[in-house]
Recover the amino acids of this structure.
């Protein structure tokens, strides 16, 4: 952009600051409350405490939900990375029928989760599959598949064809080319996609509410608790999750952004 | 991998398996559920059991019952308003980002996008406490002298849904607008400057039209995400903030009328598809695709 006159820069900066404040204030509330007691909307700044974190360590219900979320997240990552990569490899370089199938993969991601969730709910009922963690994992995988698929496909498209051709010219078999050339080149996209898939699964609430059985994941547990109000140790949990999420973001950025920016420059 | 022959046949087997999976996975887990869902919308419920006889009753009820169409329309208006608020806030912020150089630009972009990945339920809860009677918003307005006493105007009604959804969805508007602004060739802006246009003229005649595709994508993202949400209205809407998403969700819970819920979902899906197509159509024009 060309240099702007000072007043408009200040105006734009002010709006940006406002947006940042708006976006971060909902995150600020639980973090502050995890260290200080709040009564009637007033923060008691005088007595910082870690007691909420101690209480959290003893909250078995919430820790069980957290464990369930992690299990669901890991299963979702494994399933979505394997199938997303397979689909990307298959569709890459194939014209016929690709756009239709690609559209189908993207549907659950584009559609409101309530529609995907309800469709799956009825589907599971029709095929006689009881609602359980398995149905949650299927729901999450269907939801995040598009992201993994797209991440891997974009890497495949930016990969130079000459690499594969050189490998065949040097006498490598299809297997060897796949394991030694294609897969190593895709690995960072797959890791990046896996992190995104995990992050999405970790926070997925709407589909989960619809397809879950008796065991609930953390967001669903929190949703159920929210009607009655949260106990203070939930704030501690939120603060910890926020830190963990920021860490995940930084990791995902490391795996995804540098390559993309490098390819854009070329 | 001993002999070339066995590798070949293994490879062929694998490629056949992959082909099968590539077609079967999307069809079984996406297309079939959606198709069953669509079929369900033509069924009906009699005393708690689903009658598998096709009828247009659900759709007739949607169009004739005095409850559903107004809620449907109000929800669309609400979500368009959310999209407008998000864009009004996101556009200046995205523009500001593009005036920054290198590292700062992407660092600040990340900063504005990171809240997306934070727990949705917790954010709704925190926003509700900010908007509430004892919340920060009321405290600030009273302190500034804008209000005499705390108001219940911001929680458990339509306003609350509007404000909460806008806060939650701003990042979805920032990204596409930023990307479209970033792709405007600098030479165009310099040419406009050289030809004697003022900053405002350059903005109105070059930057703004060229960034419209990003605005269209942003609007369609935000609209679709807002209209499909049933958690936010349920949590901050109270009794008066009734949205289509809530009605839909209640058909699968308290009302227990799955076929009617399916018909309502079809109506929702049609609006969503229309929004996506509009976003796609205008998001692609003028060669600056997002």
């Amino acid at each position: 952009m060309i240099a702007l006159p000072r007043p408009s820069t200040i105006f734009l900066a002010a709006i940006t600051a406002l947006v940042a404040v708006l976006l971060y204030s909902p995150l600020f509330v639980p973090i502050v409350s995890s260290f200080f007691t709040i009564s009637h909307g007033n923060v008691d700044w005088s007595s910082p405490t870690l007691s909420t974190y101690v209480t959290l360590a003893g909250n078995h219900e919430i820790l069980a939900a957290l464990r369930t979320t992690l299990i669901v997240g890991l299963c979702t990552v494994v399933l979505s990375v394997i199938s997303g990569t397979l689909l990307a490899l298959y569709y890459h370089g194939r014209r016929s029928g690709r756009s239709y199938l690609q559209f189908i993969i993207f549907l659950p991601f584009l559609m409101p989760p309530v529609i995907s969730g309800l469709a799956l709910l009825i589907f599971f009922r029709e095929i006689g599959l009881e609602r359980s963690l398995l149905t949650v994992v299927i729901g999450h995988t269907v939801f995040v598949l598009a992201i993994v698929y797209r991440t891997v496909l974009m890497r495949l498209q930016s990969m130079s064809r000459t690499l594969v051709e050189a490998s065949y010219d040097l006498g490598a078999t299809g297997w060897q080319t796949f394991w030694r050339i294609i897969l190593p080149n895709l690995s960072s996209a797959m890791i990046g996609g896996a992190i995104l898939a995990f992050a999405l699964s970790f926070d997925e609430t709407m589909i989960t509410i619809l397809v879950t059985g008796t065991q609930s994941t953390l967001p669903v547990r929190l949703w159920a608790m929210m009607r009655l109000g949260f106990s203070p140790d939930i704030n501690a949990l939120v603060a910890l999750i926020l830190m963990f999420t920021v860490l995940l973001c930084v990791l995902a950025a490391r795996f995804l952004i540098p390559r993309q920016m490098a390819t854009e420059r070329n | 991998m001993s002999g070339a022959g066995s590798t070949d046949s293994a490879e062929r087997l694998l490629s056949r398996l992959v082909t099968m999976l590539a077609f079967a996975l999307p069809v079984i887990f996406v297309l079939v559920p959606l198709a069953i869902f669509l079929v369900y919308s033509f069924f009906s419920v009699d005393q708690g059991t689903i009658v598998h006889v096709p009828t247009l009753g659900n759709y007739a009820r949607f169009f004739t019952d005095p409850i559903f169409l107004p809620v449907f329309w109000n929800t669309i208006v609400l979500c368009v308003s959310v999209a407008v608020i998000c864009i009004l806030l996101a556009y200046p912020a995205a523009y500001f980002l593009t005036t920054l150089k290198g590292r700062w630009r992407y660092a600040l972009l990340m900063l504005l996008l990171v809240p997306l990945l934070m727990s949705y339920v917790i954010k709704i809860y925190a926003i509700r406490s900010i908007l509430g009677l004892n919340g920060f918003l009321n405290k600030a307005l009273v302190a500034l002298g804008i209000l005499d006493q705390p108001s219940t105007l911001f929680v458990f009604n339509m306003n609350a849904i509007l404000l909460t959804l806008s806060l939650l969805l701003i990042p979805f508007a920032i990204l596409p607008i930023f990307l479209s602004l970033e792709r405007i060739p600098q030479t165009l802006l310099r040419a406009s400057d050289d030809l004697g246009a003022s900053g405002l003229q350059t903005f109105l005649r070059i930057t703004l039209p060229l960034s419209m595709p990003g605005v269209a994508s942003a609007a369609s993202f935000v609209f679709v995400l807002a209209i499909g949400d049933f958690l936010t209205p349920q949590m901050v809407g109270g009794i008066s903030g009734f949205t289509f998403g809530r009605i839909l969700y209640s058909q699968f819970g308290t009302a227990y009328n799955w076929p009617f819920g399916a018909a309502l979902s079809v109506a929702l899906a049609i609006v969503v598809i229309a929004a996506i197509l509009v976003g796609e159509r205008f998001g692609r024009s003028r060669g600056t695709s997002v």
Remarks:
- The first strand of chain A starts at residue 37 and ends at 39.
- Chain A touches chain B through 75 residues (CB under 8 Å).
